[in-house]
Design brief:
Layout lengths: L16 E3 L9 E5 L1 H6 L12 H4 L12 E3 L3 E3 L2 E3 L7 E7 L2 E6 L14 E2 H17 L5 E13 L3 E11 L5 H9 L3 H15 L7 H22 L1 E2 L21 E2 L23 H16 L5 H8 L2 H17 L8 H15 L3 H7 L13 H15 L6 H9 L9 H14 L3 H11 L29
Antiparallel strand pairs: 1-3, 2-9, 4-5, 6-7, 7-10, 8-10, 9-10, 11-12
The protein binds adenosine monophosphate and magnesium ion (MG).
Magnesium ion binds next to loops.
Length: 469
């Protein structure tokens, strides 16, 4: 069913992974299928009806010429080093068109530790929707091809159904992959992994390991700036969840921040707020430091320090350009930093919905603020209006430009939850597909779906997210 297949990581020796096969589950059925993701590996919409589709993407029918594997890695989790992690419930089953095809929830592996190797339907739906939504926002991310559901019960806080999600990524190598070989003193393997990464994923840096590390630093900085600009809060930014490619990886208890709160954290297990929204830029730097430690057998400390020094400028350049665009400023003036700070303070103090504020800004954002916050908004709006007088674009041009960077639709937690409820309670998967399609065009008005741009009702129950998925 797949053409254009290849094998890159799987050609490395078994030091880097364990070869094994998937553990198929009872009564598999198709839950969701993303056409845009399918196109990446050369499949069209009809592929979902192919007799081999379900057996291929549950790992039951192997991809020809490919030995499936689970990769080894380690990493820092919540600040502490864990010597061995690895794909505890994931299996790479093939590669096509430069994309690794990985099943998540495929059963036990040598790295499962205390887990059951499975993923629950709810977490597959969340990862599936968010991967595709992030891609549509233009933010680098792994992709999601499909979800296959089952009747197999799995125990979490309560008994749920197991599912598998097929994830696509040019590579699943993590910061933690390098940490594993460094901390076990396997320096030859470490060098091999660096060589592999550069050869296949950073060919412009062949023979320039220091330049490659700097590139990883800058990509990570830009990725996190992109997250801050839309309110995406990853929730578990451990080094094993950091892609070496600088793309969003491992969606767990993530959420888009709705009411602005700098200390927002979606992960209820993260009591100290280590991975809160406002911490993400600093955490990116901390994680890159851990990567630098892992690379220190191969690279001089000067080269690593030099690379790390690029983090802050790369982050600020991306963030400030992005914030300027969100505010509709085509000119760049020194006082803009102050306006950006005032804007963030206004949103934080008034707990304004981050996404709705910027979307409404070219028309009239005042209507979004409660009576008690009108004065604060008016004060800010005066400064903003004064700044706009220094712009050359007319209001119409500005609005058009702002609408291309300020999304109307994001994956709000209650929207994903509604799709999950329907899927779990009624075996009705239509809301998953509907939501994916709406989020495919986040910058379009789509007036018929205006309700999907709204925050949850004031009296809506709180949705609890944890690492257990
Ligand atoms: P995460 O925090 O989801 O990125 O997972 C951290 C580590 O735990 C990774 O090595 C995962 O493969 C592993 N893991 C998470 N859930 C399970 C599970 N249900 N069974 C086996 N391993 C798991
Ligand atoms: Mg992970």
């Amino acid at each position: 069913m797949l053409n254009n297949t290849q094998r890159r990581f799987g050609n490395l020796p078994e030091t880097f992974y364990s070869a094994l096969s998937s553990q198929p589950f009872a009564h598999p059925h198709l839950v969701a299928f993303s056409e845009p993701a399918a196109a990446l590996i050369g499949l069209d919409a009809s592929a979902q009806n192919h007799p081999d589709f379900i057996s291929t993407f549950t790992g039951e029918k192997p991809v020809e010429g490919f030995q499936p594997y689970a990769a080894v890695y380690s990493g820092h989790q919540f600040g502490g080093y864990v010597p061995q992690l690895g794909d505890g419930r994931a299996l790479t089953i093939g590669e096509a068109n430069g994309w690794e095809i990985q099943l998540k929830g495929s059963g036990l592996t040598p790295y499962s530790r205390f887990g059951d190797g499975r993923a629950v339907l709810r977490s597959c739906i969340r990862e599936y929707l968010c991967s595709e939504a992030m891609a549509a926002l233009g933010i680098p991310t792994t992709r999601a091809l499909c979800i296959i559901g089952s009747d197999e019960p799995v125990r979490r806080e309560q008994v749920e159904r197991a599912a598998m999600m097929t994830r696509l990524s040019p590579s699943h190598i993590r910061f933690g992959s390098f940490e594993y070989f460094a901390h076990t003193n396997q320096h030859e393997a470490l060098q091999q992994l660096v060589d592999f990464t550069i050869e296949h994923h950073f060919p412009a840096f062949k023979g320039d390991e220091a330049g490659w590390y700097t590139e990883v630093v800058e990509r990570t900085a830009r990725l996190i700036a992109d997250w801050q600009l839309v309110g995406f809060t990853h929730g578990v930014l451990n080094t094993d969840n950091m892609s070496i490619l600088g793309i969003t990886l491992d969606y767990g208890p993530f959420a888009f921040m709705e009411a602005f709160d700098a200390g927002f954290t979606p992960n209820h297990s993260d009591e100290g707020g280590r991975y809160a929204f406002e911490q993400q830029p600093a955490v990116g730097m901390w994680n890159l430091n851990m990567l630098a430690v892992a690379l220190s057998p191969l690279l001089s400390s000067d080269a690593l320090k030099e690379g790390l020094r690029r983090y802050e400028p790369a982050f600020l350049a991306r963030f400030e350009a992005g914030m300027r665009a969100k505010l509709g400023l085509a000119e760049s003036l020194p006082e803009d930093r102050m306006l950006m700070r005032d804007t963030i303070q206004l949103l934080h103090k008034t707990r304004m919905d981050y996404t709705r504020f910027f979307r409404a800004l070219p028309d009239d954002a005042s209507t979004l603020f409660k009576d008690e916050h009108q004065a604060e908004y008016a004060e800010w709006a005066k400064k903003y209006a004064a700044r706009l007088t220094q712009e050359n674009r007319n209001a119409q041009q500005r609005k058009a430009a702002m609408h291309t960077v300020n999304p109307k639709y994001i994956l709000r937690t209650h929207l994903a939850e509604a799709a999950i409820r329907k899927a779990e309670d009624e075996q009705d998967f239509s809301e998953i597909d509907k939501l994916r399609r709406i989020l495919k065009n986040p910058f379009d008005e789509q007036p018929e779906y205006a309700d999907y741009a709204l925050p949850p009702a004031d009296d809506a129950p709180e949705i609890c997210l944890s690492c257990s998925s």
